[in-house]
Amino acid sequence: MTDSKQRCAWADSAPDFPDYHDKEWGFPVADDQRLFEKLCLETFQSGLSWRTILTKRENFRLAFQQFDFNKIALFDDEDVEDLLSNAGIVRNKRKILAVINNAKRAQELIAKEGSLAAFLWRYEPNENTLPLPETQTTCKESVALSKDLKKRGWIFVGPTTLYAFMQSMGLINDHAEHCFMREKIDTARKAFERP
Question: What is the distance between the alpha carbons of residues 151 and 107, in angstroms, rounded to a whole number?
Fold first, then answer.
């Protein structure tokens, strides 16, 4: 991007990052489908660059029924084979099976807890206990959330994956101190009604 705004260092590392950084990353989200989508995309991102996933995001949305977990929970072997032959997504069988498994676990969690958002936002870290932005890849809350989800049968939900999820979905404001978005995210988080 050619403007003079100061952003997080990572936001200038790829052409599609500034837009994602300025319009999505860090804004708080309470919509179950969007939260589930992000958990799935973080699963696919594991071991890869976020740019790879962001570039293919629309393909993922088409392939996974807009990340409607009620539809994904019904995927069968034929659907898995279709996904494995889809060149528009990351064709990793373990990750595809993880998304289908996690869709079923999401249904169970919602039946028990009321919503995915209500459950996930219980793990929102206290901002005063976090170190400086952009200095860590996990926190005690992402570790605790990982353990809780794994106990409930979720897979591909390690503490680092969940910390990245928390950053992107607004549970943490991890924009750099100098970043022009930090104040905007603080404002959005203050106005956000926790589920």
Answer: 15
